[in-house]
From TrEMBL:
<comment type="similarity">
    <text>Belongs to the FAD-binding oxidoreductase/transferase type 4 family.</text>
</comment>
<dbReference type="Pfam" id="PF01565">
    <property type="entry name" value="FAD_binding_4"/>
</dbReference>
<dbReference type="GO" id="GO:0022904">
    <property type="term" value="P:respiratory electron transport chain"/>
</dbReference>
<keyword id="KW-0285">Flavoprotein</keyword>
<protein>
    <submittedName>
        <fullName>FAD-binding oxidoreductase</fullName>
    </submittedName>
</protein>
<dbReference type="InterPro" id="IPR004113">
    <property type="entry name" value="FAD-bd_oxidored_4_C"/>
</dbReference>
<keyword id="KW-0560">Oxidoreductase</keyword>
<dbReference type="InterPro" id="IPR016166">
    <property type="entry name" value="FAD-bd_PCMH"/>
</dbReference>
<dbReference type="InterPro" id="IPR016171">
    <property type="entry name" value="Vanillyl_alc_oxidase_C-sub2"/>
</dbReference>
<dbReference type="InterPro" id="IPR016164">
    <property type="entry name" value="FAD-linked_Oxase-like_C"/>
</dbReference>
<dbReference type="GO" id="GO:0016491">
    <property type="term" value="F:oxidoreductase activity"/>
</dbReference>
<dbReference type="Pfam" id="PF02913">
    <property type="entry name" value="FAD-oxidase_C"/>
</dbReference>
<dbReference type="GO" id="GO:0071949">
    <property type="term" value="F:FAD binding"/>
</dbReference>
<feature type="domain" description="FAD-binding PCMH-type">
    <location>
        <begin position="35"/>
        <end position="214"/>
    </location>
</feature>
<dbReference type="InterPro" id="IPR036318">
    <property type="entry name" value="FAD-bd_PCMH-like_sf"/>
</dbReference>
<dbReference type="InterPro" id="IPR006094">
    <property type="entry name" value="Oxid_FAD_bind_N"/>
</dbReference>
<keyword id="KW-0274">FAD</keyword>
Amino acid sequence: MTASLAELARYLPHLVLRTEPGDLEHYGRDWTRRWTPAPLAIALPGSIDEVQGIVRWANAHRVAIVPSGGRTGLSGGAVAAHGELVVSFDRMNKVLGFDAVDRTLTVQPGIALQAVHEAARGHGLMYPVDFGARGSCQIGGNIATNAGGIRVIRYGNTRQWIAGLKVVTGGGELLELNRGLVKNATGYDLRHLFVGSEGTLGLVVEATLALTEPPPPCNVMLFALPAMDALMRVFGECRRRLKLEAFEFFTDRALHHVVAHGAQNPFETASPYYVVTEFHENETEALAVFEHCLESGLVTDGVIAQSDAQAAALWKLREGITESLAKYRPYKNDISVRIAVVPDFLDAMQVLLTREYPDFDVVWFGHIGDGNLHINVVKPAHVSDADFIAQCETVTKRMAAILHAHGGSISAEHGIGLVKKPYLASARSEAEIALMRGMKRVFDPHGIMNPGKLFDP
């Protein structure tokens, strides 16, 4: 243990500090696996006071801090590769309170999203933000990246459900933001600066989450589509006639991987595109939608769930994609455009990817109903890691230009981190980036909070 770490241990005698090589590797990386983790140590605070103490020590010694949640991120936002102190919130993982009148749940940042869902259900309510990594991602990380997921089409992103925050700034101050108020017209709402800030301004140490009524009973339907240009027409028909909870699409290559990983394919005949949609239970209207789409040539086959088990099996075809691809360490793009622009954008992307990746396995899926597309490029076995990344980065530069032309974003819901930092200017103007840098200097005067993420120091 270095002299500075020994001082931290004396300063905060109950703080858990870990320096074993296995812990440094485990806590020093996220799902990108592109950088070799090399943190100074792992600090696991158990209280807000300890978090403030860590930040004050880090300022005194000019030690950079990287916040760590479930490390399920895909943009390198939780990577510690240059001697940073990783602050993990694994020990701050409790529900602190429930308010039945305000319908809010107050939690610590290290609680898993699935545990939030279970706590809300225990009170007859729902926290509606949801995605496949629910069992391992943490609410603090969800807030730091303004996570979206599979139900954005109905409920929006994480930002919409944050009623209040407690944060420790880069200067060590504890701020209580909004305090759960529904109306609060007292100047700048600093809460929203921290949502999506990727730990560059400070650390979320407590969150008050808004809850809502669970939806009526829902059902799930899977469509097989003959062509990409049918996607938005099917979406329009479903949105017009059904009360949608989710509308997700994936390609035949995505289905191939998830079936190889253990899921069951309900169709005998292959199609190039698929859609899984969840809607308020109305089987008669759903069947009418399917029949109309079938007669119009928009779909070639379909399945409607007849039980909860079958609904879960259909959802597994979509939610199991990321896990099925994990062993390949794919290069990932997470992009978005306005829903109205999706058809033209998809056409442009199909041309780009077909031209640039003629021999690569490219897996598409995403939240097409809110304009969010995930593109996963699988590395061929004969291509080196360095050559693969270089080729993908070249394509991403061209993709960023297409996104800029369509008014889109290089990061829909995974953040900027290290991966997308070179492309921030495709979505933000020079004036915006300058103001963002200025805000960071105010909240983090010594530049210790997750430096090198979002933009260079």
